[in-house]
């Protein structure tokens, strides 16, 4: 689908690296690899907040016969680690694989931190970039950075999940806020690799609920006649306090054989309550490019029993990558074919949706509520 109000609102040149939290560290020259995958919410003043992932990378990660990774150290701050080129696979400019390990072990040539960017109420322009409120690693389990915020407002409090990356674990961490702008780290809430945990914006049956997406290196096959494809699935979990989580015993949404989401699926924007149930936007990936083509799909879950899927459309995407939107920044591009939705805010007649475009840009799309109304209503 295409929508009238669909535009890029933030790009790497908009970031002032003189105000980066990495400034002052002995890293060599850095640049903004991407401004992407923003958490999204409305502030008490009516303005909109994007919590933008800033991927800050080494300009020259390879120096001599070594390649360097950025890491945060509790005692030293931001540092670089050197690895012999002969011992790694450096074909991906964003990361490299250490070949001496039996397991798949990676290091990063960039490090991600989170930057609050305030938009006006109509999402037309940036009104303030809150460099003083940037979120940077603060614990050893975040040594390789903080990625892909999702923000949900529940009552009078904001809950922000992030992916924290380290040699210790690849975990989901929680931040909370009393005003939507200043966040306090609450710690690890999922202790396994899980890229897409997001809280429902409400409490079905009086409990916190969240979508999760556990990852692994091994999946077991469905029977030959099954409609499902083995791989990561979107699951459901509940909690009495937002800190301690009980996974549901059955998966919620699984990749379906023959669909346009067969390669991978995962949660996108936090589910919001509508007259048709909980609206969830999620990403589906189809093979075809280096990482596959990422699109945004949607489903509805029962308002009282969110484990019940009322409707799902895994064929007709809501959002697709739009090269014409990212073309002005084509010289900065290192990836194509990706729209990765990470936030949603309700407006009068629309849902305002925030996404990352090509792991490079922040995209805002106004989707009319009528798109989700049953035919003939």
From TrEMBL:
One Pfam short name: Glyco_hydro_130
Keyword match Hydrolase: yes
Annotated keywords: Glycosidase, Glycosyltransferase, Hydrolase, Transferase
Source organism, top-level taxon: Bacteria
One GO MF term attached to the UniProt entry: hydrolase activity, acting on glycosyl bonds
Family matches, as SUPFAM superfamilies: Arabinanase/levansucrase/invertase
Family: Belongs to the glycosyl hydrolase 130 family.
Protein name as catalogued: Glycosidase
Organism for this UniProt entry: Luteolibacter luteus
Lineage of source species: Bacteria, Pseudomonadati, Verrucomicrobiota, Verrucomicrobiia, Verrucomicrobiales
